[in-house]
Specification:
alpha/beta, TIM Barrel, 8-stranded parallel β-barrel, 10 strands, binds phosphoenolpyruvate, binds manganese (II) ion, transferase, 3-deoxy-7-phosphoheptulonate synthase, transferase activity, aldehyde-lyase activity
């Protein structure tokens, strides 16, 4: 079902305010974590102003340390949904656990499957049983075939509204960037599947001043969209502050990427 050979035409994933894989570059943005009601409303306005149609924000966070901020849970989902609705946007948020698929599904327009869960097959099956689009992040050590098989788990359960996200992989040198952005994965995945491919330059870069060049590279390579972390006070962000773009930098990134998208 995922293979281009069996399904030659591109899949376009459509939600109320967004088309991923259509002619327009899909722009998703927001903070790494939903931090408060007030903050997510402010970030939604920034994202919207820059042209984003999807608001991101984690309410269930897969933190490396169990002592780090774990997210606001359902309260965060409510704030995220309200902030998106107020600005005429869609919501993308991570679901970490099969037991939470129903709960998260009440609030979101796209399920995000995080890199750490790319091969959590019971979670993939659970989101595969819904009709909600699934944005699948490439695992940090996942090969292209691993990504394709993970997508197949979702599709095999009946949900073919799938978006693939290249977000960087672990390589022998991740001293200056958090991960190694595999820009070649964009055209390769597009050749092999009919699903739209977007890029997450934030988790690939890990530092804010590398985000724009990677975003530009991803769009130049043919990505259908971007998912980017933004924050107005990155030093005090609850998670991933170092890679967050401030509002003005984000606006400029979006402007440049839209220019590039017109010529690819
Ligand atoms: C995130 O989007 O905040 C996140 C945790 O991403 P990833 O799964 O790519 O690390
Ligand atoms: Mn993050």
């Amino acid at each position: 079902q995922s293979s281009r050979l069996l399904h030659p035409e591109d899949t376009i994933v459509k939600t109320a305010h967004t088309e991923v894989g259509g002619n327009k570059l899909a722009l998703m943005a927001g903070p790494c974590s939903v931090e408060s009601e007030e903050h997510i409303h402010r970030m939604a306005k920034v994202a919207k102003e820059a042209g984003a149609t999807v608001l991101r924000g984690g309410a269930f966070k897969p933190r490396t340390s169990p002592y780090s901020f774990q997210g606001l849970g359902e309260e965060g989902l409510k704030y995220l949904r309200e902030a998106a609705d107020e600005n005429g946007m869609d919501v993308i948020t991570e679901v970490m656990d099969d037991e939470h698929v129903e709960l998260v599904g009440k609030y979101t327009d796209f399920f995000q499957i995080g890199a750490r869960n790319m091969q959590n097959f019971s979670l993939l099956k659970e989101v595969g049983k819904t009709k909600i689009p699934v944005a699948l992040k490439r695992g940090m050590s996942a090969t292209i075939d691993d990504v394709l098989n993970a997508a197949e788990y979702i599709a095999a359960c009946g949900n073919n509204q799938i978006i693939l996200i290249e977000r960087g992989i672990r390589t022998f040198d991740n001293k200056y960037t958090r991960n190694t952005f595999d820009v070649g994965a964009v055209p390769v995945l597009q050749q092999l599947t009919h699903y739209p491919v977007i890029v997450d330059p934030s988790h690939a870069a890990g530092v804010w001043d590398i985000v724009t060049p990677l975003a530009q590279a991803g769009v130049a390579a043919g990505a259908s969209g971007l998912i980017v972390e933004i924050h107005d006070d990155p030093e005090h962000a609850f998670s991933d502050g170092p890679q967050a773009l401030k509002p003005d930098t984000f606006k400029e990134m979006a402007r440049r990427c839209e220019e590039i998208h017109k010529v690819v």
